Give the backbone structure.
Amino acid sequence: MKKTIRIIGVPIDLGQNQRGVDMGPSAIRYAGLSTRLKSLSYQLYDEGNLYVPVRDSLADKHGSDFLGAVQQVCQAAYNAAADAVAAGEIPLFLGGDHSLSIGTIGGVSSHDPVGVVWVDAHGDANSPATSPSGNIHGMPVATLLGDGYPELVDIGRPGAKLSGKDVVMIGIRDLDGEERDWLKKSGVKVYTMRDLDERGMGSVTREALEFLSDHNRIHVSIDMDALDPNTAPGVGTPAPGGLSCREAQLLMEIIADTKKLVSADIVEINPILDHENRTAKMAVELVTSLFGKSIF
């Protein structure tokens, strides 16, 4: 029986200040996502986009002032993720900023534990007390581990959705000071770009998956700023010295080999800052590798 992928757009741009990420789901679809996934013999169901309040309709608000709207969107994402998993489908969420993962990962883990591979330049592990910017897209990991706005921590069900032993981060190269200290105490396994430079993506990925070996289900959350800006220019918070195209694809291929993938997010594509949709096209390449495309 063919496995079904349920595509769900979440055009949220309320977790940060850079405008444009709300167009990310359209950019990924336009880059040929459905055609490429169908070529891998999946059944495909595109649910369209979840409702996200238009930023300009939330007059004179910014940062944490969008908290109620972010809560509303993440609750919808939680429900959509839980429904897809209950139906035996693989939810693929198209962002939008990374705040959406508070909902998606919460929903995917609503009935059974899930291990998370967090692919990002940033730790996204700030809390309201530590965040220099107050931007919620820099808080989802801490929130999922129970440290954040109560309105977001308790989405779907009360309390933390993950513990540190459930999360590995790959590609990290830009951390705030207090965020770094929090991560060191959290139990999250963090692989920085230095680890990748010294040891190579293959070795790091296999060790990361061994860290998650007690998990039979894996969620992959891909922030496109994990890639080097020369490869993926269309992101709001670029950080130099990121993953190459082949490093990112190898990571996806090795995860695909485990046959444990149950869900994924791909976030933070900003078409306004992109060149000829390059970043969305790269995202499609990564997604197809994650879902089993092989070179030979």
Summary: The chain has a mean pLDDT of 95. The longest strand covers residues 4-10. Residues 75 and 103 are 6 Å apart (CA to CA).
